[in-house]
Fold these 3 entries.
Entry 1:
Amino acid sequence: MLIQNGSDVISLYADGHYVGTTVPGGSSSYLPLTEGLKQGKLVARTEIWGHSNFDDSRLPGLKLNALKGLTGMTLVTGQHEMSRNWSVYRATDRTIRPELTAEADRKLWPVVNLGGWLSPDHPAFEYYRKSFIPGEQADSWILHFEGMQSTAKVFVDGKQAGDVGPFDPYLDLSGYLTAGQPAELAIFLERVIGLPAGRRAVMYEGFKAANWVISGAEEPELSAHSNAARSQSQATELPVQLDAGQTAWLYSTIPNSDNGKGWRAAVSGAGIKLTVFLEGRIVGRIWTSGGEDRPVITGGNPQSVYLPGVWFNKKEGELVILLEAVDQTAPCRLDAIRLQQV
């Protein structure tokens, strides 16, 4: 499956099987379906981890007007290798010449791999063109530049389809391509010496997922769900281990600290994402180490949350934690929660 414009955290299930958790940053992400999709049932759990208070252009999800959730999904039925056999024309500046994107005869242009022209220019400006025939049994096409370290403008039959770069290397061409109809692709590539255009270019082809049903769960709904699930709970001790894709609620009652200022709760474990509630209110979220898809988390201590003393009900407080197992490569476990007085 190809998740399009996903933000912030997306967990995908296909026919009840856990596919994976990804953090596209507002871009797109490809997740292979190892179990297939025989029943055609998809469930995507999307989670907001915050909004930026400044406009950061490095990722689509960090801009002030960034949207959360996803814009769609494509069931990938084929992949077209797009790295080879491009005709290249060397330009002198970044001014777009429309005739070079579709009309100009390219029979005498050298044929190279995408980004493979060894130019002494710094920066280098190049037009790459090739023909592409979309499959007849598809309605969605997304172009992906793996490992891209340059910037590019993409054209289809002379029409500009969009821009791609290192932080958003996917581009949806569905609105510009027609099943079974040949098209002329052109890429205006701007790159500097020492940085590659990318390891590989691939066109994902398939069918758009449709007929979605959406439901939301903010703090009150999550708290209500934990209360409803409490009757099925059973006594346990840490460590707790879950299979990848599993979720669970953890319940405990803890006293306030002696000075009444609360606790710093430090978590140890691997492959587990935690949403921590104190007296029905979210106090923080933690993503323990482990897994290739775990994002880099900075600012403060990423492995602890503060439990405010003023939120305790008299001398005790109910601690409820939503556990999500997100690592498919190793056991997902919560080993311990240690309380330190503040």
Entry 2:
Amino acid sequence: MPGRLAGRRADRAAQHGAHPTACAVSCLGVGILARTVLETRSSAARVITRISGAMVIAIGALLLVERLTG
């Protein structure tokens, strides 16, 4: 049974590494698309940047609280 347990741990570790990578790639893609679309609309770009930045901070804070309490 120790081999199975080690395999499960390795699978779990791989999943934990894959999720942040997928998030980083998707955020990068959204950022590139947003820059392309909003290059000519600087006021809209500023508003969207502030909103998205606040959302990222809020999500990060929630994840940190979840991690520390769970």
Entry 3:
Amino acid sequence: MRVYPDGARHLIGFDAFVVEVEPTLFAKLTPDRLAVIDAAVPAAPVVPMPERDPDEIPQPAARRDGLKGRALGMLRSLRPGRG
């Protein structure tokens, strides 16, 4: 698991599948919840990473304001091929 100072955790499985946990994208991803992830991973595979450039840290997409924007987003999510 790669551990970043900004709170990000990148877990890499034996099959090379990567799960990126980015606290900046999820408000409910608190330090207590990150601690659960940390406790579940043995110390040996933990790799402390250097601080990331602020431009490299994912940020939530800007929300469209108003009912029209929300309705368009819902309609787009109903397109075939979007799980």
